[in-house]
Structure formats: C-alpha cells, structure tokens
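Quarterly update, task 2.4: NDP-bound model.
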Amino acid sequence: MISVAVIGAAGRMGKTTCDAVEAAADLTLSARIGSGDDLLAGLKGAQVAVVMTGPEGVDDIVATCVEQGVHAVVGTTGWTEAGLAKVQAALASKPEVGVLLAPNFALGAVLLMRFAAEAAKHFESVEVVELHHPNKADAPSGTARHTAQQIAAARREAGVAPSPDATTAALDGARGADVDGVRVHSVRLRGLVAHEEVLLGGPGEQLTIRHDSFDRISFMPGVLLAVRQIAGRPGLVQGLEHYL
Ligand SMILES: NC(=O)C1=CN([C@@H]2O[C@H](COP(=O)(O)OP(=O)(O)OC[C@H]3O[C@@H](n4cnc5c(N)ncnc54)[C@H](OP(=O)(O)O)[C@@H]3O)[C@@H](O)[C@H]2O)C=CC1
Ligand SMILES: O=C(O)C1=N[C@H](C(=O)O)C[C@H](O)C1
C-alpha cells in the first residue's frame, strides 16, 4: 500500500486525483490538503504527495515535501527558473527523494509531444496552439512550453532553420509567445478543458497533430503511474515521458 497526500485537494485536479487514489486498491489517501491547512501535519505518514495547486508558492510546497522525505508528483504548471532552483537545492540534501514535474499526465498529450518533435524535423514551419478553459491561471500552458522546447531541441539537433516569418506585428502578442524560437498561441474559451494543436507546414502541405482532454479523468492513469513509480526514481525529472 502506498500512502498518498493530495495538495490542492479542493481544486479541479485535486478532487479528481483524490477520487482516483481512493478507487485504487494499492493506494491509500492519507490527507486532503487545501490552502488553509497545515502542510507539515498533512504530510505526516505520506510516502507520496500529489501536488495540484496553482503556480503561486508551489516551489515552497515541493521543497517542503522533499525536506520531509516525501516524494512529489507535481502537476502544477507555471514554474520559474528560481522555483526549480529551490527544489534542486532541497534535493541536494535529500538525494533519495523523487520529484516529477509533469506538465501533462495524459498519455495522448505525451505522445503528441513525441510525434510533434519527430515531425518538426521534416517541415519548414511549425507553430503551437494551446486551448484551455478560461479559469486557467498561466499562459502559455505548461504542456505547450514543453512541446515547443522538445520541438526546438529536435530541430536544433537536425540542423533545421527557424520557421520563416516576414511579418511585423502591428500589435503586441499578435504572433504569440516565442518559446525557444517556436511561436505558441494561447486560447481561453468557456466550454474547453485542455487541448493542443501543433501545426506543421511545408511547400503545398500541412500536417496537424491535435490532442484533446475532454475530461480531467484523462490525466489520472498518468498520475497513478507516477505515484507507483516515483520511489524508484530519485532526483528531479521533468516530463512523464521519462516514466513511460
Ligand atoms: N499536469 C497535468 O496533467 C495537469 C496540470 N494541471 C495544472 O494543475 C494546476 C491546478 O489546476 P486546477 O485544478 O485546474 O486549479 P484549481 O484552481 O481548480 O485548483 C488549485 C487548488 O489549489 C489550492 N491551493 C492553492 N494554494 C495552495 C496551498 N498553498 N496549499 C494547498 N492548496 C493550495 C487552491 O485552493 P484555494 O482555491 O483555496 O486557493 C485550489 O483548490 C494548474 O497549475 C494546472 O495548470 C491541470 C490539469 C492537468
Ligand atoms: O490548467 C489546466 O487545465 C491544464 N494545465 C496543464 C498545462 O498547463 O499544460 C495541463 C493541461 O493542459 C491542463
């Protein structure tokens, strides 16, 4: 039995995670931790924490998990370099603890990133569009940043030139954000959950790779897989693809 504390338990992802943990025969939900709760008390007895808070203060939460010897499976996006450094510093004193920062736990999204990185080596142009519900805190999405970074790395390694672009934007933001040289566009629309398209263009053709999460249950197989594996994967890992 693995005992699991969920941090951000009252949120959209937190609630779905608590349900998934409670439904799993090999896991036990040791604590539901919300924003007003005592984190140290909530972590007592937990082997793994699943962190599904917003971006504000998430670095301190994960560093506290590490200091307490609790492995952290983290879905929260919107990480800064300073936040990552704080977690790395905590891990330096507890190298046996595992931290997984996974911008997307849906298997289809992980595969989209892999396929997009492969395809981007063969097309002149590539841009990323992410589409989410309007309550999302951060932009671009963690998934889109991770996708763009993987695309950029694959194109660099293959010696592909930057996507051609002769446009001068008349308004700030008209061409989206620049993530490692890849344009990323963020749509926020009532009715959506989490969606992403990678558009790839070559002379006379286009390839579109799209993933849709219609329900937050799509993230749960990845969350549970990570909870089951993390004790055997010490240190900081970024991306669920490293667990598959
Ligand atoms: N990796 C993945 O596959 C996925 C990641 N996400 C990411 O997960 C995160 C959460 O998303 P979502 O569930 O939609 O957001 P919500 O706003 O619905 O939930 C966040 C929850 O965290 C709580 N919270 C905030 N600060 C703390 C704290 N210090 N301690 C404990 N709880 C806290 C909030 O409580 P309060 O309201 O009281 O502040 C709220 O209940 C986002 O960063 C999102 O991008 C989302 C979907 C999939
Ligand atoms: O906030 C969300 O909803 C989501 N956040 C993650 C992200 O930023 O990529 C994962 C998924 O897209 C849903």
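Highlight for this quarter: The chain is about 35% helix and 25% strand.
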